Amino acid sequence: MKILTIESSCDETAAAVVDDARRVLGSSLATQIDVHKLYGGVVPEIASRSHMEAILPVVADALRQAEITLDELDAIAVVNEPGLAGSLLVGLAAAKALCVAANKPLIAINHLQAHVYACRVAFDEDPFPCVGLIISGGHSSLYRCAGPIDFEPLGATIDDAAGEAFDKVAAMLGLPYPGGPSIQRAAEKGDPKAYDFPRPMLNDHDRLQFSFSGLKTAVRYKLAGVGRVDFSTQKISEQERADVAASFQEAVCDCLVGKAVQALRKCGMKTLCVGGGVAANARFRQKAFEASEKYRFKLFIAPPKLCTDNAVMGAIALERYKAGLFADLDLDVSPGLVRDRDLAAEGIRRSAELR
Ligand code: KG4
Ligand code: ZN
User: Fold this and answer.
1) Is 80 exceeded by the pLDDT of residue 120?
2) pLDDT confidence band for 233 (50 / 70 / 90)
């Protein structure tokens, strides 16, 4: 069995061909980082237009690598939620057109479930059931994952996503977009204990929620507090920049790992699967590994390339194929812009139940 998977939820246009053993037969990705870098973040309208240019070449490239034609596919799968509406629509329209042209069934992919499934693709072992932690530019959420497509929300961020905080703090420090890799690089020469930034919500064991906007503001005030009222980082020394980056990164990682441990405890589970761009962060990976040794749980984090957006994690479509869960051709996108907030509310209810 062979499935073509398409990803266009944010600023990466990607396609892959996977077989029923989750082997990757072809994988192609066109990144838009250089375009959005000019603006310090993703510009949705530009993202949609860039997807339009890249989508068919990327699909053709994945098929070419896999040495198969559309006719030889068993299904075509596409991410339809959550993400930027205009970006999702490009992938969905392309997938529908290909389904009609080649008379193939359509499968819908949930981008967040796919991020967790990256762990299933990367390792031989089946990690389910597990707690799923998804940390990306748009989401910071915890789920109880009974199976690959059976997710129950445990909690989420009440304001910024972790990746968003990385991107915004990087901008404050005059570091280029995307902020996560820039901060990680700057932090290598910094002291993580130089500044004692807050760890919001970490000590509130009753609620499985994140909050990063206060931490972001703390960084801003720290920069202003050292005599830079306009927050300009022009005069900041390289060492100060590295110290702020390292201290900020440390605080975010403490919150992410700490809440994941709390979620495992509340659910009585022994396995954690992490996905999303921030899971590529070296310090996060190290801290998560240390926690897994200390608290004795199994940790799955895919290699960095499978943490950031890609189409290989779309192999989750195999699970829907096996379950006979096909989508109709009137499938719509579900951007889910308020989803994290809904999840945060749901998380309060779930945390209360689990208490
Ligand atoms: O999952 P992803 O590629 O796209 C979304 O679904 O949002 O995540 C992108 C986010 C960006 O905010 C980026 O700054 C962050 O992941 N990121 C990182 C690292 N690499 C990417 N954050 C921290 N450290 C990294 N090494
Ligand atoms: Zn993502």
Assistant:
1) yes
2) low
DSSP string, 71-136: GG-SEEEEEEESS-HHHHHHHHHHHHHHHHHHT--EEEEEHHHHHHHHHHHHSSS---SEEEEEES
Fold topology of 125-306: Nucleotidyltransferase; domain 5 (3.30.420)
Binding site membership of 281 for ligand 1 (Cβ less than 6 Å): yes
Q: By alpha-carbon position, which residue is closest to atom 26 of ligand 1?
A: 281
Does 3.40.140.10 match the CATH number of domain 2-115+308-335?
Answer: no
pLDDT tens-digit profile of 82-119?
Answer: 999 999 999 999 999 999 999 999 999 999 999 999 99
Place 346 in a pLDDT band, splitting at 50, 70 and 90.
low
Does ligand 1 come within 6 angstroms of the Cβ of 11?
no
Amino acid at 96: K
Atom of ligand 1 at shortest distance to CA of 307? Answer: 1
Q: Is the peptide bond before 129 cis (omega within 30 degrees of 0)?
A: yes
Domain ranges in the chain are: 2-115+308-335, 125-306
- Pair 142, 156: CB distance under 8 Å: yes
Look at the pTM and tell me if it is higher than 0.85. Answer: yes
Atom of ligand 1 nearest to the CA of 83: 6
Q: Which ligand 1 atom lies nearest to the CA of residue 138? A: 7
CA of 110 to the centre of ligand 2 (A): 10
Domains 2-115+308-335 and 125-306 belong to one CATH topology: yes
Rounded to the nearest whole angstrom, what is the distance from the C-alpha of residue 352 to the centroid of ligand 1? 31
Secondary structure of residue 256 in the 3-state scheme: helix
pLDDT tens for each residue of 281-317: 999 999 999 999 999 999 999 999 999 999 999 999 9
Which amino acid residue places its CA nearest to atom 19 of ligand 1?
A: 180
Instruction: Please tell me if the CB atom of residue 336 comes closer than 6 angstroms to any atom of ligand 1.
Output: no
